[in-house]
Amino acid sequence: MTTKDIVLVALFAAIIVALGFLPPITLAFIPVPITAQSMGVMLAGTIIGAKRGAAAYVLVVLMVAIGLPVLAGGAGGLQKIIGPTGGYIIGWIFGAFVTGLVAERLVRDGQPEIRQYVGFFLASIVGGIVVVYAFGIAWLCFSTGTPVGKALIGNLAFVPGDLIKAVLATLAARAVLAGYPMLPSRA
């Protein structure tokens, strides 16, 4: 990793932590809150790429594991990783990587803007929603004994908000690509 890579990883870890300052929204029917930090998966992957985006989330998860209050609502600690939300937290790492990988494959400088928007949006959906939900639902079912069908239905409440996050991440990624075309150069 270059100095630029390390700086970008640290910067995005800080952005992810800052997104945690927004209070979580708790739903009565599922032990997983709605947080802004999941949008960081989409932002990190689309803006700084697969490896650096995943590295930023590894850094955040390590901070959570040692007990720093970096999750939404000031939460932290190993119990968050092994608790019902742990699959989503670990899924953030893989989600950021997949988001970045898809964005790296679909979006190129010099493409028509609409293709870039579509590429960033698809990357955000695949990595930031599908991958994160896959890890989260699997762990939720394992750790709580919740039936898969019930967990899938419970997660439907998150889809509209996550689609809005995907749109916001798409707009941000496109703006960064237009303003700083050398930033996304892959690590």
TrEMBL record:
Coiled coil: none annotated. The chain crosses the membrane at residues 6-34, 54-75, 87-107, 119-140, 152-177. It is a multi-pass membrane protein. Keywords: Cell membrane, Membrane, Transmembrane, Transmembrane helix, Transport. Its main location: membrane. Pfam families: BioY. PANTHER family: BIOTIN TRANSPORTER BIOY (PTHR34295), BIOTIN TRANSPORTER BIOY-RELATED (PTHR34295:SF4). Belongs to the BioY family. This is Biotin transporter. It comes from Rhizobium aquaticum.
